[in-house]
Amino acid sequence: MTNKKIYFASDLHLGLPTLSESLPREKLFNSWLDSISEDVGELYLLGDIFDFWFEYRRVVPKGYTRFLGRIAEMVDRGIPVHFFTGNHDVWMFDYFPKELGVEVHRKPIFKEFYGKKFLLAHGDGLGPGDPGYKLLKGVFTSPTLQWMFSKIHPNFSLWFGNQWSVSSRYSKEITHVFRGENEQITKFSRITLEKEHYDFFIYGHWHSPIIYPLEKESNLVVLGDWLVSNTYSVWDGESFKLMRYKQNEPDEVIDSVKL
């Protein structure tokens, strides 16, 4: 067993529905970050950490000071932190790399940890189908639209962005149930496996924590969220675990795979 572990988490949605109401969630997540501080080798945050984010050249959204401070501290200690843009925080540019030293990813990446191969992505827009969503995502990732939005005063643009983000969610409770073979990420993963083997496909976005077997030695993992589940995953070189954080109690093992 290795002495440093690889941790994965996603879908914190900080700022939902308001900064003050999401503060307990931010503090809980920071408590989790503190709990892994001694054995974390790398940290991967797979998108939708913020419910809305937009960076101006000299302005970033108000709030999240405790979370940003924890991340900066980890990087300063030499722990690599990776941030994937999700569909809610897609308008992230260079603040995290320049100010915090965090590497930002906008597309799926491929990594090898302790001899096993991982594909990591937020997950939205992958796989066949859903042309309407893919068109909408293309619009929001357009440099022209981003440039136009940046010309609006932050007092209005950030308020508008937060209101739009909150209104797009029908409830704080995420009720989506992972549909197995009918999910786009499952189809995407199987198409990818036809070309190259990966031991783990790790996704955010779906909010339903699960380890879903694809083949005998290949698994799809949905990380869950910190709105309802408070879940994360960890790989130590021998076993992969999907966990639920329980402050002041031992964390719960939801599922695990040993390779």
List keywords for this structure.
single chain, 259 residues, alpha/beta, seven-stranded mixed β-sheet, five-stranded mixed β-sheet, 12 strands
Structural account:
The protein is an alpha/beta fold. The chain has one domain. Helices cover 31% and strands 24% of the residues. The protein is built from 7 helices and 12 strands. Strands 4-3-2-1-10-11-12 form a 7-stranded mixed β-sheet. Strands 5-6-7-9-8 form a 5-stranded mixed β-sheet, with helices on one face. Helix 3 (95-100) links the parallel strand 3 (81-84) and strand 4 (103-105). The longest helix has 17 residues, at 19-35.
Total number of strands: 12
Main β sheet profile: 7 strands, mixed
The total domain count is: 1
Global shape: globular
Q: How are helices and strands ordered from N to C?
A: EHEHEHEEEHHHHEEEEEE
C-alpha-based Rg, rounded: 18 Å
Helix content: 25-40%
Mean pLDDT: 88
How big a fraction of the residues is strand? 15-25%
List the helices and strands and how they pair.
Elements: E1 5-9, H1 19-35, E2 40-45, H2 65-76, E3 81-84, H3 95-100, E4 103-105, E5 109-113, E6 116-121, H4 131-140, H5 143-150, H6 154-167, H7 184-195, E7 200-203, E8 210-215, E9 218-222, E10 231-235, E11 239-244, E12 252-258
Parallel strand pairs: 1-2, 2-3, 3-4, 6-7, 7-9
Antiparallel strand pairs: 1-10, 5-6, 8-9, 10-11, 11-12
Give a quick summary of the entry.
This protein is α/β, with parallel strands linked by helices and 259 residues long. Helix content is 31%, strand content 24%.
